[in-house]
Amino acid sequence: xxxxxxxxxxxxxxxxxxxxxxxxxxxxxxxxxxxxxxxxxxxxxxxxxxxxxxxxxxxxxxxxxxxxxxxxxxxxxxxxxxxxxxxxxxxxxxxxxxxxxxxxxxxxxxxxxxxxxxxxxxxxxxxxxxxxxxxxxxxxxxxxxxxxxxxxxxxxxxxxxxxxxxxxxxxxxxxxxxxxxxxxxxxxxxxxxxxxxxxxxxxxxxxxxxxxxxxxxxxxxxxxxxxxxxxxxxxxxxxxxxxxxxxxxxxxxxxxxxxxxxxxxxxxxxxxxxxxxxxxxxxxxxxxxxxxxxxxxxxxxxxxxxxxxxxxxxxxxxxxxxxxxxxxxxxxxxxxxxxxx
Length: 341
Fold this sequence. Notes:
Strand content: 5-15%
Number of strands: 6
Helix content: 55-70%
Strand order of the largest sheet: 1-2
Mean pLDDT: 82
Low-confidence stretches: 173-185, 337-341
Largest sheet: 2 strands, antiparallel
Number of helices: 18
Order of helices and strands: HEEHHHHHHEEHHHHEEHHHHHHH
Shape: flat
């Protein structure tokens, strides 16, 4: 967290609304000015505008400028608190002015106007949320990635729930582990029942599959040797939704033999693939991380639980992430003196 030691100097700057040792708030007008500069020139626009206002990185720190950049990417047009909007005397947020968004009275944040939201949902998923917003003349940059992701998540859950409820009405549950389509028993250690194209996995399936759910449902089904043609679209959505919400439940230990033992080894292999892919993802993203994020990454590596089999040692993890061992230890001992590259 940035510590501002030049509080008196910052308070005298007309673009600063308030400042304390660990927080700096800029005025509404200046935040909007910074946002416009960012839209035109990215983080370079923020840096130039801050320097012109005598608020360069030497005064506020590079991490603060990086936080402004991240804030605009995620949050879009700056949030105006009710008191700030009152001082401005008029609405200036282009989203609210479009009539497609409304402002929350208490926080000043914006959300989709209810009727417009229903229009977007009626088109979803045939028309994506971003496409729907563009078609309505909305600048996605003003919306920000966070709100778009929130709406996407809400729509996806709503669509899944509606489809599951519809399928439940049309396909009542019958005898366990029997396919009503063929009247042929399905002997599988991780399937409780199959009704038509509706597959109900066992609790053991979810307990073991949720550990590798990030690989995607198709790979999870492959690991557990569940054939894709057994499962209809509604069943896929139901299983995926439950996996996303699943929390481990303690069960009595089960002996692994036959197909269950093969699936166990499939799962171990898939978990290794997932860990390796996550380290590779961190390595690819390392050059784009801020100094604060890189420091957090080093502390995260330091605090990882010890691998009881001794494979993922600190040295091996650093190699996979792309951080030199000497740099890592120097950064931990003196975090302000080292630049990770």
